[in-house]
Amino acid sequence: MEKNEDLCEIPVWTKALMNPLILNRIFSHLNFADLKNSVRIVCTVWADLSASHLGRLCCLRVSHNHLKDMTSFNPKLIRNISLHLKTDSKLTGSSAGVLNYRYTDAVTVVPEIPKLLTHLIIHFDTRSLPKLGEMWGTFIFRDRLGMLGLTFTSHDNPLQTVISGGASTILQGLLNSAPNLEEVNMTIDFYPDFTSCKNLRILTFNCIGLHKITLSDPSAISRMMDTCSNSVVRGRRRRSYAAAPAIVRRRTPVAFYASPQAKNLIFYTLSFATPRRAADAAEKSPKTGAAAAENLSASPSAMTLKTDGGIMFDFLDVASLPKLSHFSIQGIMCDNAMWRMYQNCHRPHYGISKLEIKCFHCAAEDVQGSAKIATLFPCVTEFGNAMLSGNFGTFEGNF
Fold it and tell me: Where on the tree of life does the source sit, at the highest rank (predicted)?
């Protein structure tokens, strides 16, 4: 033991111990629990050296129960934080006040956290958050925040449109205070302004529970996309009806299929999810954003746009989508037959070379629908399809 202690004092051993390549090789064989519990036993230096590695493996989940005990933190471990603003179902009129009281502690106890954050994920479970936005206004993210995720899973009336001092105020304030955002992942019911986010490259937008009048306004989604059209290179747009199944039967998706002004758009995916599948997609959205970030370097000029919604309208405008080459439409729902999805499309797009279709199959009507595909996409060289028939059997094929 004495010889080992002497060896550890030699500078070359110290350098080897602090070599990040060696540390990553060792840490990669340990899970989070083993790594956290064993590093100090092996060597006290490893606990500090492994902090950045731990920060990549885990996400710190902050709730009101943790704030009272949080008096210090390691900046390397605060790279990824999840703030859960949840109300007690037994609290009605005073729930917003309780939230404001609880999360004011986050500012007073750990005022330096916002300055060091690089990833921020926020979950809301209520629409009305009066005065909570004032507390969030004290957060200054400076130039470090690179990824923002916001999920709104309200159980309130989905047709309610008034969000007074709530999630919309908080999100817009976060966007305005983080000019170097590169990735935003949102499941919300309003259209934010990305004008201040000049470096936004990855955008995942899942709009939920919007009022039908808002949906029928073509300018709403266009204004939002115009504020980031010059910087976004990879995006996903989705439509969810998880909070309002009735909207599925009487949707008005004209605005959602207005041709986006996306000069760099290469990959375009339209997805028509059922309420349950839409909810599942919302739960998996943070992972989806991470996967998009990993693939971004492989195709830096690619933009993937994904949308969940209703029937597709005539949106394939070559002038707005000059680089579009990969198009995928996914509509495994009983009212998303092939002919119905394409009935309002008339303008062909000559740049699309790869086409994927997943839809409900209706034998009689889809004869015309299949013929129209060749007219709309005359330059396709790679085609794949998956169809659900009337007797709920499936047929899949790649051509």
Answer: Eukaryota
Q: Where are the domains of the chain?
A: 1-57
Whether the CB-CB separation of 116 and 145 falls below 8 Å is answered with no
Residues 96-126: pLDDT tens digits? 333 333 344 444 445 566 666 777 777 666 5
Whole-angstrom Cα distance, residue 339 to residue 354?
Answer: 20
CA distance 394 to 388: 5
29, with CB counted inside 10 A (0-12, 13-18, 19+), is exposed
pTM surpassing 0.70? no
What are the Cα distances from residue 277, in Å, to 205, 241, 333?
16, 9, 11
- String of DSSP letters for 187-199: EESS----TT-TT
DSSP state of 337: B
Q: How far is CA 215 from CA 219, 295, 309, 322, in A?
A: 10, 31, 11, 26
Total length of the chain? 399
Mean pLDDT of 319-342: 70
Q: How far apart are CA 152 and CA 359, in angstroms?
A: 29
Q: Report the relative pairing of strands 80-85 and 202-208 from DSSP bridges.
A: unpaired
CB within 8 Å of 104: residues ≥ 6 apart:
135
Angle formed by the axes of helices 275-283 and 285-296, to 10°? 60
**CA angle centred on 59, ends 53 and 61, rounded to 5°:** 145
SS3 for 344?
strand
Cβ-contact 346, 317 below 8 angstroms: no
* Whole-number Å distance between alpha carbons of 274 and 248: 8
The answer to whether the beta carbons of residues 143 and 179 sit under 8 Å apart is yes
